[in-house]
Write a structure and sequence with these properties.
mainly alpha
Length: 109
Protein backbone atom coordinates (compact mmCIF):
# COMPACT_ATOMS: atom_id res chain seq x y z
CA UNK A 1 0.00 0.00 0.00
CA UNK A 2 2.87 2.34 0.73
CA UNK A 3 4.24 1.76 -2.76
CA UNK A 4 0.90 2.71 -4.30
CA UNK A 5 0.76 5.94 -2.29
CA UNK A 6 4.32 6.75 -3.30
CA UNK A 7 3.61 6.39 -7.02
CA UNK A 8 0.01 7.63 -7.08
CA UNK A 9 1.00 11.10 -8.32
CA UNK A 10 2.92 9.57 -11.22
CA UNK A 11 -0.09 7.44 -12.16
CA UNK A 12 -2.43 10.43 -12.14
CA UNK A 13 -0.04 12.55 -14.22
CA UNK A 14 0.38 9.64 -16.63
CA UNK A 15 -3.41 9.24 -17.01
CA UNK A 16 -3.90 12.96 -17.63
CA UNK A 17 -1.03 13.05 -20.12
CA UNK A 18 -2.41 9.98 -21.93
CA UNK A 19 -5.87 11.55 -22.19
CA UNK A 20 -4.39 14.71 -23.68
CA UNK A 21 -2.37 12.72 -26.23
CA UNK A 22 -5.47 10.70 -27.21
CA UNK A 23 -7.51 13.90 -27.71
CA UNK A 24 -4.81 15.53 -29.81
CA UNK A 25 -4.39 12.46 -31.99
CA UNK A 26 -8.16 11.94 -32.20
CA UNK A 27 -8.81 15.41 -33.60
CA UNK A 28 -5.66 15.59 -35.71
CA UNK A 29 -5.52 12.08 -37.22
CA UNK A 30 -8.64 10.31 -36.08
CA UNK A 31 -12.35 10.72 -36.73
CA UNK A 32 -13.17 13.18 -33.92
CA UNK A 33 -14.66 16.45 -35.18
CA UNK A 34 -16.07 19.60 -33.69
CA UNK A 35 -19.56 20.81 -34.50
CA UNK A 36 -18.25 23.43 -36.92
CA UNK A 37 -16.17 21.00 -38.93
CA UNK A 38 -19.03 18.49 -38.97
CA UNK A 39 -21.24 21.17 -40.52
CA UNK A 40 -18.56 21.87 -43.11
CA UNK A 41 -18.36 18.17 -43.94
CA UNK A 42 -22.13 17.98 -44.37
CA UNK A 43 -22.12 21.02 -46.64
CA UNK A 44 -19.32 19.54 -48.73
CA UNK A 45 -21.33 16.35 -49.14
CA UNK A 46 -23.95 18.22 -51.15
CA UNK A 47 -22.74 17.91 -54.68
CA UNK A 48 -22.67 20.70 -57.22
CA UNK A 49 -25.13 18.67 -59.29
CA UNK A 50 -27.70 18.78 -56.48
CA UNK A 51 -27.32 22.54 -56.09
CA UNK A 52 -27.56 23.06 -59.84
CA UNK A 53 -30.73 20.92 -59.88
CA UNK A 54 -32.19 22.95 -57.03
CA UNK A 55 -31.53 26.27 -58.73
CA UNK A 56 -32.84 25.07 -62.11
CA UNK A 57 -35.97 23.59 -60.54
CA UNK A 58 -36.56 26.77 -58.52
CA UNK A 59 -36.30 28.87 -61.69
CA UNK A 60 -38.73 26.49 -63.40
CA UNK A 61 -41.20 26.79 -60.51
CA UNK A 62 -41.05 30.60 -60.62
CA UNK A 63 -41.20 30.80 -64.43
CA UNK A 64 -44.18 28.45 -64.64
CA UNK A 65 -46.05 30.52 -62.09
CA UNK A 66 -46.42 27.69 -59.56
CA UNK A 67 -44.55 29.80 -57.02
CA UNK A 68 -44.09 33.56 -56.86
CA UNK A 69 -40.57 34.98 -56.99
CA UNK A 70 -39.05 35.06 -53.50
CA UNK A 71 -38.36 38.44 -51.96
CA UNK A 72 -37.31 37.50 -48.41
CA UNK A 73 -34.79 35.01 -47.12
CA UNK A 74 -37.53 32.83 -45.62
CA UNK A 75 -39.29 32.69 -49.00
CA UNK A 76 -35.99 31.69 -50.62
CA UNK A 77 -35.58 28.92 -48.05
CA UNK A 78 -39.10 27.65 -48.72
CA UNK A 79 -38.47 27.74 -52.48
CA UNK A 80 -35.21 25.82 -52.06
CA UNK A 81 -36.96 23.17 -49.97
CA UNK A 82 -39.74 22.90 -52.55
CA UNK A 83 -37.29 22.63 -55.43
CA UNK A 84 -35.51 19.74 -53.73
CA UNK A 85 -38.83 17.85 -53.51
CA UNK A 86 -38.38 16.30 -56.96
CA UNK A 87 -34.82 15.19 -56.21
CA UNK A 88 -35.57 13.82 -52.75
CA UNK A 89 -39.21 12.69 -52.80
CA UNK A 90 -39.02 10.55 -49.64
CA UNK A 91 -37.02 12.82 -47.37
CA UNK A 92 -36.55 16.45 -46.52
CA UNK A 93 -33.26 18.05 -47.58
CA UNK A 94 -30.77 18.92 -44.89
CA UNK A 95 -30.18 22.52 -43.91
CA UNK A 96 -26.74 22.62 -45.52
CA UNK A 97 -28.21 21.69 -48.90
CA UNK A 98 -30.95 24.29 -48.65
CA UNK A 99 -28.45 26.94 -47.54
CA UNK A 100 -26.16 26.22 -50.50
CA UNK A 101 -29.12 26.31 -52.88
CA UNK A 102 -30.38 29.67 -51.60
CA UNK A 103 -26.87 31.14 -51.90
CA UNK A 104 -26.74 30.00 -55.53
CA UNK A 105 -30.04 31.66 -56.44
CA UNK A 106 -29.79 34.55 -58.90
CA UNK A 107 -30.54 38.04 -57.60
CA UNK A 108 -33.67 38.31 -59.74
CA UNK A 109 -35.92 35.49 -60.90
Amino acid sequence: MEELKAHLGKYIYGAIGGAIVILILGFWVGPLTTNGSATDLAAAAVSDRDVAYCVANAQRLVTSGEVSAPSTSSEKTELASASFAGLLPDETPNRAAVRLCTRAFPQEF
